[in-house]
Design brief:
Elements: H1 24-50, H2 55-77, H3 79-106, H4 127-141
Amino acid sequence: MPDSPAPAPGARTRPADAALNTGLGRVLLFVYGVFALSASARALVQIITKFHEAPLAYLLSALAGLVYIAATIGLAIGGERGRRIALVSCSVELLGVLIVGTLSIADAVAFPDDTVWSKYGSGYGYVPLVLPFIGLWWIWRHRPARSAS
């Protein structure tokens, strides 16, 4: 197998083969893990104790919890499979926070109680809005290098 050509002096190299869970990836893994635990626990308690009050909001919080769990798993296992799981999870998270955030402002009656993604995650310091952008950037930055054939 021939050696790959050395990068030009001063050229920036992409950490394509570096694990998703190294460096900033460890911070993302921790934050996603915290959100997986908090969103899932919150949704579980809300569904068990007061589901009749705001079923849509509580089911959306449960969905957010599942998305955060999947993102955490994807970042943790790494490799191509983990990267795909994290990519799908972060994409769903971004769509969820944008759609639910917009709907929760436009139709507050439909959301009598907040979800993790309500008002773009304002109840969580807007971290749910920023997190998928950072996650998607990190995953993109660690995409496999294309082989020059």
